[in-house]
Amino acid sequence: MEAQAQGLLETEPLQGRDEDTVASADFSSMLSEEEREELKAELVQLEDEITTLRQVLSAKERHLVEIKQKLGMNLMNELKQNFSRSWHDMQTSTAYKKTHETLSHAGQKATAAFSNVGTAISKKFGDMRSHSISYSIRHSISMPAMRRK
């Protein structure tokens, strides 16, 4: 009996099978005629209120569209505004500022490194060229001398 009592006191939400069981149960035999009539009246009243709320919501949505049209607002303008606002918010965020600063610093270091590599390569090519020219001159001078012998 205690297991049944505890089942009635469970606070866990209903599962799908529990909802099906409750939906298929016939509680109408447990209600008095007066309670049934009160519930029916409440049901009708709730349905009327829901219908009224839907109508009011629909009218407000139409009014919203009219106001937006008068102001020249359309979906594309709203998207642009939202994007601009989001972009601005992102740029002013601390994370963006730190990332921008870090990448900027890294870019400067990379530029300096590439410049140093470029200078070293240019110097090496220059050395090779001057070496090649001096070798060529020495070679052209020594060739006739070798021919004489």
Automatic annotation (TrEMBL):
<feature type="region of interest" description="Disordered">
    <location>
        <begin position="1"/>
        <end position="21"/>
    </location>
</feature>
<dbReference type="InterPro" id="IPR007327">
    <property type="entry name" value="TPD52"/>
</dbReference>
<dbReference type="GO" id="GO:2001235">
    <property type="term" value="P:positive regulation of apoptotic signaling pathway"/>
</dbReference>
<dbReference type="Pfam" id="PF04201">
    <property type="entry name" value="TPD52"/>
</dbReference>
<protein>
    <submittedName>
        <fullName>Tumor protein D53 isoform X8</fullName>
    </submittedName>
</protein>
<dbReference type="GO" id="GO:0005737">
    <property type="term" value="C:cytoplasm"/>
</dbReference>
<keyword id="KW-0175">Coiled coil</keyword>
<comment type="similarity">
    <text>Belongs to the TPD52 family.</text>
</comment>
<feature type="coiled-coil region">
    <location>
        <begin position="29"/>
        <end position="63"/>
    </location>
</feature>
